[in-house]
Every structure is written in structure tokens, then in C-alpha cells.
Amino acid sequence: MNTPPQFPLSRNRKSKTFRRGFPAVILAAVFVLTAPLFGQNELISNDQFSDGGDSWKLQPGRNAMANQSVVTLDEEPALQIEVENLEQKPADVRVQRVFGEIADGTTYVVRFQAKAAVPAKIIPYIYPEKERARVLWRVEANLDTEWQEFSFSFQSPGAGEECVLGFSQLGGQTNSFWFKDVTLSVE
Questions:
Q1: Helix ranges (DSSP H) in the chain
Q2: Which of 179, 154, 174 is nearest to 73 (CA)?
Q3: What is the distance between the alpha carbons of residues 142 and 93, in angstroms, rounded to a whole number?
Q4: N or C end of the chain: which has fewer CB within 10 A?
Q5: Which residues sit opposite 176 in a β-bridge?
Q6: 26 and 11 in contact (C-beta within 8 Å)?
Q7: Beta strands in the chain (DSSP E)
């Protein structure tokens, strides 16, 4: 009859040993208890735009042309949105990404850094992808020409699957916008 290998807890050969599965149970318990300390509660974490910004989708509105790219500013990658307002009329240019589920009554924190070539007001928002009219969170943010850090905490008024985090009102005038360190986490 084969017995499972034994693993000593120390180099002392007379020490007690445990079966192979026991250390895995300890590791699982440590992971569950420490996961929030290591970012496991983040729904969106800034992955340094390693996908070239492909997870962010640009939606130019009428009267505007826009493009997006990932650039290096201050030795860090940033998502750049360049907008040309063709008729000098307000145009709702937005950039957004799908991230997953929002739970009813849960408190979330949205953080990001942003700046614009010309000071502008933008609107960060969250809504379920298939229910665009059902906004779960929306706020105004005033951008300046220097990097600013934004942090917004909100309690979700409802649940939603496959939700979208985005920034709208980017097309009010010809302008350039930069975003970095975008995160969404459970508080």
C-alpha cells in the first residue's frame, strides 16, 4: 500500500509531518483573508494600458472627430483622447470600457488622474451596458491643464451586469485629454 509523501515543517527530522493537502488548505485560507489587501476587490485596475488601450472604446458624437492612443507622459503610460470639434457645436464624445457586475447597495470608489490641453468639464459615469438609460453613477469633474487626482465614492442604487465605466462630454470643443491610474474598487 502506497502512503502519500510526508513533508516536515522544519529541518528537524523528528518534527511532526502533515499530509500533502494540508499546506494547500493553509495557503487558501491565507489568500482568502489577505485578498482585499492585494487589490482583489478591484473591478478595474490600471494595467498600464498594456493592451494599447484596446479595452477602452471611443465613441465620437456628431460634429466631432476623435482618436485615442496610449502615450507616455511623465514616464508613465496614459490614455490620450484627441477631439476635433468640426462645427463648434457641443458633441458628446465619450470613451468607456466594460468591466463586469455592480451589486445593489455596495459602496464603490472610482479613482483616476486626468488633465486636458484646455480646461474642460467632463462626466465620469457607470451604467449597465445593455441599459444605457439606467445610470448607476454620474458626476461632473473639472479638468485643468495639470494632472489632477480624482476620487469618488458612491453607493450603487441598483445592480447591473456587464457595466460600463466611462468619461463623456469630451467633445465640447477641440481639445486633448489624458487619463491614467484609472481604478474602480469595492470600498
A1: 21-34
A2: 179
A3: 16
A4: N
A5: 82
A6: no
A7: 7-8, 17-18, 42-44, 57-59, 64-73, 76-85, 94-102, 107-116, 120-128, 137-138, 141-143, 148-155, 160-168, 175-186
Cell of 73: 507622459
Q: How far is CA 107 from the centre of its chain?
A: 15
CA distances in angstroms from 103 to 1, 55, 80, listed in the order given: 51, 22, 30
DSSP secondary structure, 2-48, as one string: -----EESSS-TTS-EE-THHHHHHHHHHHHHHGGGGTTTEEE---T
Do you know the residue count of the chain?
A: 187
As given in the structure block, the three cell numbers for residue 184 are: 474602480
All structural domains of the chain, each given as residue ranges with its CATH number in brackets, are 43-186 (2.60.120.260)
Q: Tell me the per-residue pLDDT of 41-51, one tens digit each, with 9 for 90 and over.
A: 778 876 667 77
Dump pLDDT digits (tens) for 142-166.
999 999 999 999 999 999 999 999 9
Reading the block at residue 65, the C-alpha cell is: 472627430
Give per-residue burial for 97-130: e unless 16+ CB within 10 Å, then b.
Answer: bebeebeeeeebebbbbbbbeeebebbbbbbbee
Cβ contacts of residue 107 below 8 Å, gap of 6+?
153, 154, 155, 156, 186, 187
